[in-house]
């Protein structure tokens, strides 16, 4: 009896709880599986009526309106700074005439899509994650489910679809602003006409430069919307979970953007 009591004292409830917690790798695999199921539910609900067109347009406006100023300022600075830093190096080799082409290919293929997606992940992703998490904490989502309003279609599908639609448009906007910044950067140390600069830009751009860069932005938008909605919709840790949902949405969405970009580069290289 004494030995049994000693064993009982040595064991604690925390130890019993720790044995039930999944390991790091197992937890990550479970998370990926849950996200995959969440994505499957999105595709199932997205093509079934009724369609929340008004909510989709509202979310598209909110995503674009929130991100447009920051995306524009960032793209302009990127184009300007990248041009100013590249010009002295090209001047050493007497290749300054290649500057517009080099900047345009770099911006359109990689820099603008990735940086714009990261801005959307930080600006939009955190907002969506925090919004849905707060709705879960205050039981608004539960109330909608009880009322039969299909909250997944109204809240989640509209937000993910809006992100898929708006991120490519923001990238196109960023490409144009970045090229304008590059044009100003070229003219800070010389003079190049508008027609000559953009003539060099479009003469050197190929279909393989533009099309893959545009297609991958849809995947960026899907990753941002899906991960942010998943983290917020499944938050169940009270008010503390709101901050965690917003933070984890940004971190995981940013990581997903780099993974998608890496895959897109490898696929595009197969056609070169």
How would you characterize this protein structure?
Helices cover 86% and strands 0% of the residues. The model is unreliable at 1-19 (pLDDT under 50). The termini are far apart. The chain has one domain (52-270). It has 272 residues and is mostly helical. The protein has ten helices and no strands.
Features:
272 residues; mainly alpha; 10 helices; elongated; disordered N terminus
List the helices and strands and how they pair.
Layout: H1 2-10, H2 13-20, H3 24-46, H4 53-92, H5 99-137, H6 140-146, H7 151-188, H8 194-204, H9 207-233, H10 239-270
Short structural description:
By secondary structure, the chain is mainly α. 86% of the residues lie in helices and 0% in strands.
User: How many helical elements?
Assistant: 10
Instruction: Give the overall shape, derived from the CA principal axes.
Output: elongated
In terms of quaternary structure, what is this?
single chain
Which bin fits the share of residues in helices? Answer: over 70%
Mean pLDDT: 83
- Summarize the helix and strand pattern as letters: HHHHHHHHHH
Low-confidence stretches: 1-19
Q: Tell me the number of structural domains.
A: 1
Look at the helices and sheets and give the structural class: mainly alpha
Q: Radius of gyration, Cα only, in angstroms?
A: 24 Å
Biggest β-sheet description: none
Record field, number of beta strands: 0
Through-space gap between termini: 77 Å
Query: Strand fraction band?
Result: under 5%
């Amino acid at each position: 009896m004494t030995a049994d009591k000693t064993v009982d004292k040595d064991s604690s409830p925390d130890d019993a709880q720790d044995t039930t917690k999944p390991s790091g790798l197992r937890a990550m695999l479970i998370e990926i599986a849950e996200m995959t199921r969440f994505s499957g539910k999105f595709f199932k609900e997205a093509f079934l009526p009724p369609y929340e067109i008004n909510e989709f347009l509202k979310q598209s406006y909110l995503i674009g309106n929130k991100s447009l100023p920051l995306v524009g300022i960032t793209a302009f600075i990127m184009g300007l700074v990248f041009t100013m830093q590249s010009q002295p190096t090209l001047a050493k080799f007497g290749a300054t005439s290649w500057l517009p082409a080099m900047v345009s290919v770099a911006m359109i293929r990689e820099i603008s899509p990735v940086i714009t997606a990261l801005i959307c992940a930080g600006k939009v992703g955190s907002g969506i994650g925090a919004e849905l998490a707060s709705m879960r904490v205050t039981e608004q989502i539960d109330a909608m489910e009880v009322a039969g309003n299909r909250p997944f279609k109204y809240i989640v599908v509209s937000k993910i679809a809006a992100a898929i639609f708006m991120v490519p448009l923001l990238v196109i906007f960023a490409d144009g602003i970045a090229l304008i910044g590059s044009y100003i950067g070229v003219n800070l140390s010389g003079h190049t006409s508008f027609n000559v600069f953009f003539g060099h830009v479009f003469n050197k751009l190929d279909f393989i430069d533009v099309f893959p860069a545009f297609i991958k932005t849809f995947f960026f938008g899907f990753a941002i919307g899906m991960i942010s909605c998943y983290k917020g919709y499944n938050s169940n840790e009270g008010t503390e979970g709101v901050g965690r949902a917003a933070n984890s949405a940004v971190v995981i969405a940013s990581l997903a953007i780099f993974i998608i970009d890496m895959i897109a580069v490898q696929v595009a290289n197969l056609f070169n």
